[in-house]
Amino acid sequence: MIEIENLYKSYGKHEILKGLSLKVNQGEILVILGRSGVGKSVLLKQIIGIEKPDCGTVDVFGKRISTMDQKDIYKTVKDMGMLFQGAALFDSMNIFDNIAFYLSEHGNLETGQPYSKEEIEQRVCSALAEVGLSGVEKKMPSDLSGGMRKRAGLARLIVYRPKILLYDEPTTGLDPITAQQINELIVKTQKNLQGTSIVVTHDMHSALFIADRLALHDQGKIAFVDKPEIFLEIDNPIIQSFKDCLYNHPTASKE
Amino acid sequence: MFQKILRFNFLASIGEYVRLFIEVLEASFRRPPSWNLLREQLYNIGVLSLTVVAITGFSTGFVLAAQSFYQLNEKGLASITGIMVGKAMITELGPLLTAFMVTGRVGSAMCAELGTMNVTEQIDALKSMAINPNRYLVAPRFLAGIIMMPLLTLFSIVMGIYGGYLISVYLFGMSPAAFFDPMPMHITLFDLFTGVFKAFCFGVILVTVCCYKGMRARGGAAGVGVSITKSVVISYTLILIADFFITVMLNSIYQEFQTDWLG
Q1: Which of A18, A212, B10, B151 could form a disulfide with A28 if both were Cys (CB 3.0 to 4.6 A apart)?
Q2: Any CB–CB contact under 8 A between B16 and chain A?
Q3: What is the pLDDT of residue B53?
Q4: Number of folded domains that form chain A
Q5: B130 at the A interface (CB within 8 A)?
């Protein structure tokens, strides 16, 4: 589904990705753990074609997105979606227009026809209901709390049912209850859409709750990838530090 | 070494600006933005700038008429005050001051809006939804800028001449005929074309520079502030430089045309 080979990315003299390789299987939720500033968000931006790598390849749906020209990237990423760290809702639009944006701009990808107003309204309301935000359609993003904005961002993503979902620090800056709601929404969305999800986070509770596989991003590379129960047994100081954070707080499990 | 880096960054910026310009041209004319987006920008750039352009044009007309009258009256040439006001407003002050006011009012706001969208990842969000930000954000502003700048300039010229007329007639006691009558003999269609062409070029400069600086803003609110300052300063500078070259170029062509074609 997604194959990344030997990826390098630098900003000026600052090397972020140093030969990163990763394979993501169809239908799984892969959680990438890593400390702040290691380049987790940069990795997501390479996958969805927002940025191009200096070197290396990113293949999505069997297509090499890393070397495509911009027009082909836009064609390919129509089936992908990303939830940004700050939700990145459009300030100038109300919540309804934010969520309806993709549908209004692209129409029905299969038929090539635009959606009717009623159909857009029905899908937006259904997406908002799914994330528990019914009734905020007319509000502006600035009127919502951080957690609500994240949920609205998620609604904007699930309304067009992408096949690949990327989540950038979905629970960062949220209280534990709201964070847990977001975790549950990610798992629910995955079940409903049957897509492939990549979540980058440094929240171990969140990671264990949602992950089918866990990966450790360290020093510009993926150091380990495995199922959570095996991942937690790996003898590595960073994994140990993440585990220590976990044991200092009430634990959460997928069950 | 530092100079090399500086030179490279400068050249890279020019390259990026040219690339944005070409992409925006392509997005504007090959697949024009939707009417809704364009209408919003036409309103923002055109209608909402009317007051400030009117005040600027009007007060410039006042000052121009007063200065011209005081200087010319001493030499017994007060009768050409109207020509002075008209010619200066049409060929120079109308387009230039309108461009300055639109840069200050609209260009800085464009840069702030796009800059904020950039630092809050809204532009990345557009890309992640397969929307080309140059087509969605810059192209409507570009088209609205090149449509509205000539119209605003014409409006500013009318207001300036009217301001000059009021001062000349009601303060200095010139007759309306003395103010207006010499104008058709000395102000040509070429002058009007010069003013409108300049306005068009200034519109291109101010929109592309301000959008470019906005799309390149980095580093939170402070970074957006720096981008806005740079966008306004660069726009003003380029507009003044372009003003000189357009004046020289158009007049050279016109003189050549008169000599070669009209004898």
Answers
A1: A212
A2: no
A3: 96
A4: 1
A5: yes
